[in-house]
Predict the structure.
Amino acid sequence: MSTGVSSLLRALTLPASLLALAEVWLRESGYSGDAIALPSDVALACARALIDGTLVLSTAQTIGAAMLGLLFGGGLGVLAGVWFGLSRSARHLSVLSIELLRPVPSVALIPLAMLLFGFGVRMETSVVSFACFWPMLLLTQAAVRQVEPRLFEVARLLGLAPIERMLKLVLPAAAPRIFVALRISVGVALVVAVTVEIAANPYGLGYLAITSQQNLRPDLMLATVAWIGLIGWALNRLLVRVQTLVFATHARTLATVVEAA
Amino acid sequence: MSSALVAELRTTRPNTRAAEPLLQCERLSLDLGGRRIINDLNFSLARGEFVCVIGPSGSGKTTLLRLLAGLVAPSTGAVLRDGEPVRAPSHDVAVVFQDYGKALLPWRTVAGNVSLALEAVGMSRAECGERIERLLAQVGLASHGTKYPHELSGGMQQRLQIARCLAQEPAVLLMDEPFGALDAMTRQTLQDEIATLAQRAGTTVLFITHDLEEAIYLGDRVLALAANPGHAKSSVAQFVPVELPRPRDQLATRELPEFLRLRRRLFDCVHERHQ
C-alpha cells in the first residue's frame, strides 16, 4: 500500500510542479486575457461546479450517451466481428463496404444524425455508435481469427453443437483481445461524445466547455477540460483493474495482447 | 494377406472378439495443393488392435490420421467404419494431438477441460463430477483437478488431453506423435500407461510416431508409410506384425532378439526410403 502511495506521489510531482510554475508565471506577468485562467481559479471553478451540480449533471449526460453508444455500436461490432471472423464468405462480402464506410469521420454524420433525431441523447448516441462500431468490429474479427485452429478441430471431434462451440470455445478464446478492443472503444466513445456536444448537441460536458468559452469563463472551460481528462483516466484505470481480475487465468495470452495493444 | 494378419493378431491379443475390421481404408488417396500425399492406401484396423504408423516426414502420417478421424475427405477411395463411409468426426473416435498446449483450453481448469467432452454429449453437471474424478485418477491427475493447464508440466498436460479423449469413451483412439515433445523418462511411463489403458478398455488405437522403437514396443502391427508416393506406388511401404509377448517391459522387451530384428528390418525400410 505504502509503495502505491509513494509511487502516486512521485507520479504527481511533474504535473504539480508544472501547475505551480504556471500559477507563479501568470501571477508575475499580470496576464489578464480570456484564454487562460490561473490554475487556482480553475480548481476553484471546478469545485464550485461540482458543488452546484452543473458538472455532475453534465458528466452523467456525457457518460450516459457515450456508454449507450458503446453498448449499441460496440455490441453490433462484436456480433458482426464474430460472424466475419468465423465465415470467410461473409468476410469477403463485407470487406469493401467496411473499407468504404470506415474512413467516414463519425463527426461528419452529425448533420445526418440531427436531421434524423433532432437534438438530444439519441442523436449523440447514434454518432457514438457509428464511431465504436468499427474498432469493435475489426478487433473482434481479428481476435476470432486468431483463435487457435486446433481448438476448432477439438470442437468438431468432440461434437460440440455450433452454439456451444461459440459460447465455450470461440468467445472465451477471443475474450482477452475483445476486452482490449473494449478499452480502445471506451476512449473513442468519450472523445466522440464530447465532440458531438461541442459541435452540436446542447448537452453534457462538451456543451459546458463551449458555453463557458462563449461566456468568457476560461476558468470553468479549463476546469471542464481537466475534468474530462480525469474521467478518461479513471475509466481506463477501472477497465485495467477489471481486465486483470477477469483474465487472471489468461495470464499468458493476456501478456502478449497487452503488449500488442 | 490381411486375414492372415488378423489371425496372427488373435493369437497375440486373445481379447479381440470380432474378425471383421472396425476401420478400413480402401484405395485411399489424398491430394493437397496439387501434390499426392497419400496414394492407394489399403489397410484395416481390427477391434482392439494397436497399430503404429511410422514413416519419414512428408509421408502423410498426420494426413492419414485426419482422414481416419473424418476431419478431411479423401480425394479417391474411402475410409469405412463398420462398412459405412466416414464423412464427419464421430464422438467415439478420439484424437490425441502432439501439441497438447494448443489442444487444451487455457481458461478452463484441468477438470473443466475434461468436462468439455462430457458437456458435448449433454451430460448433467452432477453426473460429470464423478466421471471427471474417475478419469483424472485413471491418468494420474487426481489431485490436480482445480489447476490450470499452464500450471502443469508437459507430461501432465498430455495426460490431461488423454483424459479428455477417454471421456469420449472412444472405440477408436487416434494418436498423432503424442509423446514426441516429452522427455525420455516421461515418455516411457506414458507408453506403458497408454498400453495398459487401451488393453483394459479394449480400445482400438492408431498411434503415429517417428520413433521406431516406440512403434515396435507399443504395436501389434507397424505400418511403414512411404514418402512422396506419387501416383504409381502405394503409400504402404511395409506392414509388419509384431509378435512380442504382452505385457511388455521397457527393459526386457527391448532386449529381445525379435525386437532387435524388427528394429533392423524397419530401420532399413525407413532408411532406404529416405534416399
Q: What stands out?
A: Residues 184-201 of chain B form the longest helix (18 residues). The beta strands of chain B are 23-32, 35-45, 50-54, 76-81, 84-85, 93-96, 172-176, 204-208, 221-225, 236-241. The interface with chain A takes residues 69, 71, 88-91, 93-95, 97, 99, 102-103, 105-107, 116-117, 119-121, 148, 150, 168 of chain B (CB under 8 Å).
